[in-house]
Design a protein that fits this description.
By secondary structure, the chain is mostly helical. The longest helix is centred in the N-terminal third of the chain and has 36 residues, at 54-89. It has helices spanning 9-32, 34-38, 43-52, 54-89, 92-115, 132-143, 146-173, 183-207, 220-229, 245-255. It is 69% helix and 0% strand.
Length: 270
């Protein structure tokens, strides 16, 4: 269903149902029940009422038919959307696995940067961002329910941010003039990468039709599993008792407990 004027199809149908169904119920009572009551069961009186209301009857029948047609159209459109999403979702597990491989390569690059004490390290290579996932995500977003589409869209957005961050980090690290790699920023990078992995982890059961869609806020267990998936050993990513990956992650979770932690910006000095 396309837009009708300034109203979206669903809004128009909901408005028609909200106004039209009570009006149709009132009409049915006034037309088929009340004449019998007011006329004391006199068949001639009932026929006379129906005859006088003939124009209204025609209009109400047309109105009810319109409401029925709109609801049927919406039902068919929703069924088609669900079928299209089911077809697109069939490729989602493979796309997610592709992203996980990319995340692992990114984590490996960050770990090398963490253990390196000098700049000019040419062993760091920028992982190549996958390509196949884009078309799968695009189809899923187009046909998914708004909540699912929003979740996938945000993963896409932050994936591009991560890729830009990764390229900038590697470019700086291999530069001989870059003397002091910043471990504070690197903890933030580990955290953001863990977020992406955790968000993708929560999608796998839904993508495989093994569970319902889960958009609940990420918790420490989600992050801990994500870091483990990426071979990021939390105890090793530590500068001091205040600035380490575990405490940094838990502070972010506590600060953003009412929503997904990756929506809000995170300050490396927090």
């Amino acid at each position: 269903m396309k837009h009708l004027g300034i109203l979206k199809p669903d809004t128009l149908v909901n408005l028609l149902n909200f106004v039209g169904l009570p009006a149709a119920a009132l009409y049915a009572f006034c037309m088929f029940v009340w004449p019998w009551i007011s006329g004391s069961g006199n068949w001639g009186y009932v026929q006379d009422v129906w005859d006088r209301w003939q124009s209204l009857n025609v209009g109400m029948l047309a109105f009810v038919s319109s409401i029925t047609a709109f609801n049927i159209s919406r039902y068919n459109a929703e069924k088609q959307r669900a079928r299209d999403f089911l077809a697109a979702k069939a490729f989602l597990p493979a796309a997610l696995s592709e992203l996980v491989s990319y995340f692992k390569a990114s984590a490996s690059c960050f770990r090398l940067g963490w253990s390196s004490s000098t700049a000019g390290d040419t062993s760091l290579e920028i992982p190549e961002l996958p390509r196949e996932y884009k078309s799968v995500f695009e189809e899923c977003i187009r046909h998914a329910e708004p909540q699912v589409g929003d979740y996938l869209t945000r993963i896409l957005v932050w994936l591009q941010v991560h890729d830009a961050r990764m390229r900038s980090y590697v470019a700086q690290h291999v530069d001989n003039n870059y003397i002091n790699p910043d471990r504070y920023n690197l903890i933030t990078y580990f955290y953001r990468l863990g977020e992406l992995q955790a968000l993708v982890n929560k999608l796998f059961e839904f993508a495989r039709n093994m569970g319902k869609f889960d958009s609940s806020p990420l918790n420490w267990e989600d992050f801990r599993n994500a870091y483990g998936n990426l071979d990021i050993w939390v105890d090793d990513i530590r500068i001091d008792d205040q600035m380490n990956l575990e405490d940094f992650t838990k502070r972010a979770i506590a600060r953003n407990g009412s929503q997904n932690t990756w929506i809000q910006p995170v300050d490396a000095t927090d």
